[in-house]
Amino acid sequence: MSASGTPADAGRNAVKRAAAEAAVELVENGMVVGLGTGSTAAFALEALARRHRQGLRFLGIPTSERTAAAARAAGLPLTTFAEHRQIDLTIDGADEVERGTLNLIKGLGGALLREKIVAAASHRLAIVADAGKLADRLGTLAPVPVEVVGFGLEATRASLEALGASTRLRKAPDGEPFATDGGNRILDCSFGPLSDPARLERRIRHVVGVVECGLFISRADPVIVADQAGVHRLDSPRAHRGSPPILLVMGLSGAGKSTVALELRARLGWPFEEGDALHPEANIAKMHAGIPLTDADREPWLARVAAWIDARRAARQPGIITCSALKRSYRQVVVGSRPEVRLVYLRGGRDLIAEHLMGRRGHFMPPTLMQSQIETLEEPDPDEDPLTVDVGSPARDVADTIIRRLAAASPAGWRATPV
Fold first, then answer.
1. Which of 97, 288, 303, 393 sits in a 20 to 30 Å window from 103, CA-based?
2. 69/195 same-domain check
3. Before 222, cis peptide (omega within 30)?
4. Same domain, yes or no, for 342 and 276?
5. Residue 335: which CATH number?
6. Annotated catalytic residue: which of 96, 115, 273, 340?
7. Is 94 annotated as contributing to ligand binding?
8. Residue 115 catalytic?
9. CA geometry: angle at 104 spanning 102 and 110, to 5°?
10. What is the Cα Rg of the chain in Å?
11. 290 known ligand binder
12. CB–CB of 17/45 below 8 Å?
């Protein structure tokens, strides 16, 4: 790919090349490598060709006919899914990267279907991007490309617009509708900033006539970002390797644990469990009757919470679970020596908690038990490393704060480190 003659474009290309070369350092001898499509991925292809000439041996699976042609011209050996069902590492670009979650929008290059097939078969998806592609909320910078079949396009378009999209049929340079490698069309769908990209992805894919969409949720690991200051690696909070994090959202009843946890699930795409649902029937009956639970009552409940956490750990999956965890001794049961668990403490004043409790309908925890909860509460100590967030803002904003602070604190699995 030739660089533009303008200084601004030359600077952007230098940044993209730096990020791509850092990503190529992840490739090891004997790997099957997914080869992405787009301007930044083209720089990765150049770097791979150079490494191959230097003796690095790997096989590539391209995500588009354009990439396949470029790879052959560069002398790179290619393979297919008929020979290799699994891909060790894919290097690709992105049109937008959401800070904290590393959720993506891809497909402005027109190869989103093959890119998603390759990503789904990959153990790791390394994304290379310049810093201008980062956004606090997905959908701020780029539309969501949706690949659709040509037949019935008008009906499919109407269904997508019913989901809230402003749609535009993508055109080729000659003014004709753009055709993907599969012979399909692309509708670029603008929804604005997305509060629940995972749910939107599901809704789009359920529309008859849709082939695939450009939302890539819980897939990137890592994202390598470059700007004029240098190159940085952002590791995924959802990385299904090592010790994926498990968030235990704790606090008084009425602090909004479930609502915030659902917002976190929407943003992160992690498995979620409502801790109250794990209470034995006897506990629920006591709370319905306005009788405070004893430590003995809570023992089987805490054991179930711990078992859920251990199941996630055994499956090497991240997760989110709500649990009041009011006493330090309770937290010892569910956290214990589990380094993957991060306490997220939702702290709220008495008046705010009372207001929330009075507004709830049908919950088995009545407002009359608020005082016993306050008396039981032992706020987390500094050595428990809690992430404490004051509630009172909308749950969506509280979830955003949690994600930003987890990323900024850079514990394992959330780290942004120089390459």
1. 393
2. yes
3. yes
4. yes
5. 3.40.50.300
6. 115
7. yes
8. yes
9. 155
10. 24
11. no
12. no
